[in-house]
Amino acid sequence: MTIHAIHTGLDTIWVVLTAAMILLMEGGFALLEAGFVRSKNSVNIIMKVFADITIGTLCYYLVGFALMYGSDLLGVIGTDGFMLKGNFTHLKLSISTDTFWLFQGAFVIAVISIVSGAVAERINFRAYLLYVLLMTMFIYPIAGHWVWGGGWLGKLGMEDFAGSAVIHALGGFSALAAAILIGPRKGKFTSKNSSSIALPSNLPLASVGAFLLWFGWFGFNAGSTLTATDVRIGHIAIVTMLSAAAGGATALIYTLFRYGRSDAPSVINASLAGLVGITAGCAFVSDQSSILIGAISGLLMMGAANWLEAKRIDDPVGAFPVHAVSGVWGTIAVGLFATKGGLLEGGGWHLLLIQLLGLIILCGWGFLLTWAGLKLINKWVPIRASNDEEDLGLDISYHGIMATHTSPEFLQVNDYLNRNED
Description:
Number of helices: 15
Organism: Bacillus salipaludis
Distance between the termini: 75 Å
Number of domains: 1
Structural class: mainly alpha
Family: Belongs to the ammonia transporter channel (TC 1.A.11.2) family.
CATH superfamily: Ammonium transporter AmtB like domains
CATH class: Mainly Alpha
Number of strands: 2
Oligomer: single chain
Membrane topology: Multi-pass membrane protein
Keywords: Ammonia transport, Membrane, Transmembrane, Transmembrane helix, Transport
Strand order of the largest sheet: 1-2
Subcellular location: Cell membrane; Membrane
CATH topology: Ammonium transporter fold
Shape: globular
Order of helices and strands: HHEEHHHHHHHHHHHHH
């Protein structure tokens, strides 16, 4: 066995393992979102995640991967490689195309899962399935091609190592468009600026989801090296850890002094915001910079959450504050703190301006295509659940079952069904 064969084998094992870690993040999304919503909608959360994994994976295999990584056309779109049938030598991979696809397929599932949380408890499940097709076959792959697939933003020099912009900012602004268009949950906002929506149903469950996401993020970031022998892996892992810790610690301390108590949902989401914030620059910034990036991510997340409430935009799990706002900041942070080319590291304005341009394009693309796509879907299938479906809960309405048969909500559902039978 040659040295090259051993190297390829190690790279393959590394990428497959990190892809599996990223896939495990879907369990994190499921638990996090189920913990943040009312229990009568938690099965619906799980089923949307399964839709992301099953339908999203197939769509990316059939169409999305080719548009993202096929032969470049004018820096805009890939043109071949549907169902992995094509020549991908232009990617210059040290691993097989199959292995690379597996890793990228895990990424696309994460993008659509970001949107899922923002529309929790009120999106029509059938409409959501159609949106999964749109995101995994067109919106994300085309945007991804511009940065990672040989497209025009990548050629300009935009740096996004593991996806603060391509995955999180894009997904977060798509989530914002969906949340605005579908509208808030019934009872979320009243004329007295109060809410009849219950607090998160199960914060321990949400925290376990956050821990799973944190674990998977090491695969997300370090796995993006696509090789087991990259000396940057250790550095990528430590800055990932430091940024997440800084984000969570900032929220913990801030809420403790601001409100006299540490707010659990804020700490959970601020830790995730720190992870999102470091994703673009994990291979480019120093340990010390990662702490600052994470801390600012946590603060921005809390500010964005307050902004949503002030604008009466309902985002049950904080998808926009965590992914969009922190993703934007993380992408900008590369232009500021990158050891090669960062403005504050003596690199001038060039990289920062490219990062800003890329953000405007990617965020606008995600927002506008999601808005237009959901408008189109709404002509065939109502994108919002009916009043009765929302009152009853999406678990019973769309899946015929509830997550638990002992909660007060179960008794309310039983009473609702009995009254309607009479």
